[in-house]
Each structure stands twice: as C-alpha cells, then as structure tokens.
Amino acid sequence: xxxxxxxxxxxxxxxxxxxxxxxxxxxxxxxxxxxxxxxxxxxxxxxxxxxxxxxxxxxxxxxxxxxxxxxxxxxxxxxxxxxxxxxxxxxxxxxxxxxxxxxxxxxxxxxxxxxxxxxxxxxxxxxxxxxxxxxxxxxxxxxxxxxxxxxxxxxxxxxxxxxxxxxxxxxxxxxxxxxxxxxxxxxxxxxxxxxxxxxxxxxxxxxxxxxxx
Length: 213
What we know:
- The protein has one domain (14-212).
- Helices cover 76% and strands 4% of the residues.
- It is built from 7 helices and 2 strands; from the N terminus they run ββααααααα.
- The protein has helices at 17-34, 40-58, 61-86, 98-121, 131-149, 155-172, 176-212; strands at 7-10, 13-16.
- Strand 1 (7-10) and strand 2 form a beta hairpin.
- Helix 1 runs parallel beside helix 7, helix 3 (61-86) runs parallel beside helix 5 (131-149) and helix 6 runs antiparallel to helix 7 (176-212).
- The longest helix is centred in the C-terminal third of the chain and has 37 residues, at 176-212.
- The N and C termini lie far apart (66 Å).
C-alpha cells in the first residue's frame, strides 16, 4: 500500500506522515494523561492506528503488535476511567501496592521472554532486529498502558524503562521521528510522574487521617 510510505524528505531522510502524526498524538496523550482527562483514550486510539501503519511500513513487528494492543487497551482504559469518574471521589490516582508491583514486574519479565521466543520461531513476523528488544517494548508498553488504565502512578516509571529500549530500536528501524520524540517523552513522563505522585499522596493523606481519628 503506497500510502503507508507517504511522507517527505528532511535532512536526507524520508519522514513518514503516519510516524509524524502518530507521534504528535502520542505526545498529546502524555499531556492529557497528566490532566486525567477522558480525551486521553480516544487520542491514544487514533495515534496507535497511525503508528501501526508506520510500523507496518518499517517492518517492525514489535511496534506493530504493540499498537494493535494499544487499540484494545485504549477502549479498556476509557471504560475504566469513565467508571472511576462516576464514583463519589472521582478518578483517584494511587501508588501500586507491593503485590501489584510484583505482578507488573513478573508480567514484564515473563511476557518479554514468551513474546521474544514467538518472534524467534514465527518466521512470518520477520523481526529485522533483536527479537528481545521488540518483545520488551511490546510487553512493556502493554504493562504500562494497563497500569495507566488502573490510574497507578507506577505506569510512568514503566514508560521510562520502555523508552530506554525504544530509542535505539526506532532509530535503527528508520523511524526517526519516533526516536526524536522519545527524548521529549522522557521530560513529559518525569513531569507526569511528579504530578501523579504528588496527587496520590494528597489523596492518601485524608484517608490516613480519618483512620487515625
């Protein structure tokens, strides 16, 4: 499909429109998530569809499958946040419990190993570069988005860990916009983590005070 490769030349490199617009929406998602608006999820869905197209053109199966999963998780997150806002206290962000953190970490480690093996043995996927890197960003992104749907502060930390691998993978795959955007992501993610962490402490404080009384 020719439209998958549509783009323009910049500094001698071919920039895909799908990569550019998809990443612009991804940046918007981070900004919207910081503010806990429901627009986070439909914007994420639109961005995932565009980045899916870019990944298919670049033959990066890890990123492509990640975007498919994002579409599913966007619908789930939208439902969860809508339900949370209907509650009396509204959508309250919180830090994950020790058990939840263990589950998230286990899902990341085990999931990466399983998906990497699939990438190695399923020839139709045609993983052009490290199947472990592709598997890691796929599983890590899924874990982060799921934690985000549960309004867990920890999802910001998982995103940082995913970005550390996503930068070289995107650059090596020719997705230069994606690679550059990761740097902006890092700054925004750190700001989002600070804001959510501060809010989670404000939400927890009144509850602790009430218990003490």
